[in-house]
Amino acid sequence: MAVHISNHPLIQHKLSILRCVDTEPKKFRQLIKELAGLLTYEATADLVTAPVTVRTPLEDAQCFELKESIGLVPILRAGLGMVEGVWELMPSSEVWHIGVYRDEKTLKPVQYYNKLPIEPRVQVCLVLDPMLATGGSAVATCDILKNWGVTKIKFVGLIAAPEGIATLQKAHPDVPIHLAAVDSHLNEKGYIVPGLGDAGDRQFGTG
Ligand code: PRP
Ligand code: URA
């Protein structure tokens, strides 16, 4: 499945401020929210619609409404900041949180939170996480969602390393990947270079 890198000027401009080491958490959170909305606008261009007739003050208009129900799946913690921006576009979306952190030594994903109901109530899931580094967290989340019964998944992130894209594509070739940038490589600690540092710490003022 395709990798989409947005070259939209608004996205690229906001990304440059987001990356800057001097951008403080309040501004950082605002930018994460705005970028998530802009990227999701592009990522949802192929959602299925159904015709609907709407009565305007003048007469009937032939319109379209979304046919598929959408679930937003932020990967805790860093994906949390993306939710508000996406919710503003699709306020009736359900939000299902998945808690995954990377073990600092092995860089392997560790799941610590999952409160999905037994049956999925949504047809399309947007996995939200700003960083696709080794790809372990994204793969683990897509595994969970597929085991849950979701068949249509899209990954919406901000910055990826080539390694993370390759890993996610190999494990889940049916999941399209939407990003603002693909960076050079991962460093020895698994950080994306040049990246933006730790997306969770920069949002929540930790670290
Ligand atoms: C970060 C980020 C991703 C993950 C990406 O989370 O938010 O979830 O790393 O790395 P990967 O592609 O190598 O799995 P982190 O583990 O730092 O947890 P946090 O969001 O709670 O800070
Ligand atoms: N997680 C982050 O927050 N940043 C990285 O560069 C890699 C993983």
What would your notes on this structure say?
The structure is a single chain. The protein is α/β, with parallel strands linked by helices and 207 residues long. It has a single domain (3-204), classed as Rossmann fold (3-Layer(aba) Sandwich), CATH 3.40.50.2020. The protein is built from six helices and 15 strands. The protein has helices spanning 9-19, 25-43, 80-87, 136-148, 162-171, 199-204, and strands at 3-5, 49-55, 60-66, 70-76, 94-95, 98-102, 109-114, 124-128, 131-132, 152-156, 159-160, 177-179, 181-182, 185-186, 192-193. The strands form four sheets. Strands 1, 4, 5, 6, 7, 8, 10 and 12 form an eight-stranded mixed β-sheet that branches. The protein has a three-stranded parallel β-sheet with strand order 9-11-13. Strand 4 (70-76), helix 3 and strand 5 (94-95) form a beta-alpha-beta unit. Helix 1 (9-19) packs antiparallel against helix 2 and helix 2 packs across helix 3. The protein is globular and about 60 Å long. The model has no long low-confidence stretch (mean pLDDT 96). 1-O-pyrophosphono-5-O-phosphono-alpha-D-ribofuranose is lined by residues 75-78, 101-102, 107, 109, 129, 131-138, 164, 190, 198-200.
Tags for this model:
alpha/beta, 207 residues, binds uracil, binds 1-O-pyrophosphono-5-O-phosphono-alpha-D-ribofuranose
Outline of the structure:
With 207 residues, this protein is an alpha/beta fold.
